[in-house]
């Protein structure tokens, strides 16, 4: 078991240069005892993204707020995602095309359990080392990079760099549910900072600035204030939840992280490619 103690978490959520706010986060109020954190971003290019992000946050908060998160597992995270899909489907009368990304972090007695769908990220930053972990976006560009079809240089300005390949959307077919990437972080030290954030934050700041700010000396609230100031005029909504480790004890401390490989056998690779072309190509970020 591992005992993770937190300082007071901090957050910000700003409109940026947009007419509406499609980011959501929870819990709205947190303290050193808070055990879960969620950030969602309504998918641009689709109506009612703000409703989708709010509904998913409300669903997860409703399921976790009064429970014991210390024993939460990867299987439990999958259940949370399934409930989120069900919530959107049950509210399909609002809009049948709404969708949202998801970033979730839960403090457990095995480590920090992280899960994400889409391009809302979770960073782990360590003093004097900078970013030591970051989730990998579910995006068309990353798929092309992994398959060797494009180079990292071409990826930076690729015309389809705003296309994401996973999110939570309206569907009544469980076989359409997309599997989140789930990681258990066990390599945790005092003063490490975890940040859940939407693309409006990291596209405005960049990993180098994020690393510089969060690995520097100073109080977390001052770092959050600096980041919020820099992101105020972002081209997109910008939301971040920052969680600093006060202390960590236990036998799991310093062990290797666990990246879960959860495979679906429901559909063939060919079917998944067809599904991507038919459905997921619509999950495009507004530029």
| H-E order | EEEEHHEEEEEHHEEEHHEEH
Strand content of the residues, in percent? 25-35%
What is the general shape?
globular
How much is the average pLDDT? Answer: 90
Radius of gyration: 18 Å
Number of helices: 7
Helix/strand/pairing category: alpha+beta
Measure the end-to-end span: 44 Å
Low-confidence stretches: 267-287
What characterizes the major β-sheet?
A: 6 strands, antiparallel
Question: What is the number of E strands?
Answer: 14
Helix content: 25-40%
In short:
The protein has 287 residues and is of the alpha+beta class. The chain has helices at 49-64, 74-90, 140-146, 152-156, 199-214, 220-231, 269-278, and strands at 2-6, 10-14, 23-26, 36-41, 99-100, 102-108, 111-117, 121-126, 130-134, 168-169, 181-185, 193-197, 238-250, 258-259.
Task: Write structural notes for this entry.
29% of the residues lie in helices and 26% in strands. The chain is α+β, with helices and mostly antiparallel strands and 287 residues long. Strands 1, 2, 8, 9, 12 and 13 form a 6-stranded antiparallel sheet that branches. The longest helix is centred in the N-terminal third of the chain and has 17 residues. The radius of gyration is 18 Å and the shape is globular. The C terminus is likely disordered.
């Amino acid at each position: 078991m591992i005992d993770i103690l937190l300082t007071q978490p901090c957050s910000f959520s700003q409109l940026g240069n947009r007419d509406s706010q499609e980011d959501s986060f929870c819990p709205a109020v947190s303290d050193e005892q808070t055990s879960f954190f969620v950030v969602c971003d309504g998918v641009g290019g689709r109506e009612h993204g703000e409703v989708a992000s709010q509904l998913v946050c409300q669903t997860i908060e409703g399921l976790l707020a009064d429970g014991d998160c210390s024993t939460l597992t990867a299987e439990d995270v999958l259940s949370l995602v399934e409930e989120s899909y069900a919530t959107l489907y049950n509210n399909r009368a609002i809009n049948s095309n709404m969708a949202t990304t998801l970033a979730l972090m839960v403090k457990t007695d095995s480590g920090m359990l992280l899960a994400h769908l889409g391009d809302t990220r979770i960073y782990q930053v360590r003093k004097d080392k900078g970013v030591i972990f970051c989730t990998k976006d579910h995006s068309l560009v990353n798929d092309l990079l992994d398959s060797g079809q494009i180079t990292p240089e071409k990826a930076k300005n690729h015309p389809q760099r705003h296309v994401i390949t996973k999110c939570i959307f309206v569907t009544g077919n469980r076989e359409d549910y997309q599997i989140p990437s789930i990681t258990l972080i066990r390599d945790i030290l005092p003063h490490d900072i975890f940040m859940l954030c939407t693309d409006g934050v990291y596209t405005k700041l960049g990993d180098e600035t994020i690393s510089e700010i969060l690995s520097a000396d100073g109080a977390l609230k001052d770092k959050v204030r600096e980041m919020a100031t820099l992101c105020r005029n972002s081209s997109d909504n910008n939301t971040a939840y920052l969680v600093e480790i006060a202390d960590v004890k236990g036998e799991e401390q310093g062990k290797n992280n666990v990246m879960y490989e959860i495979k679906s056998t429901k559909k063939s690779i060919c079917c998944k490619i067809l599904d991507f072309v038919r459905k997921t190509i619509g999950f495009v970020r507004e530029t």
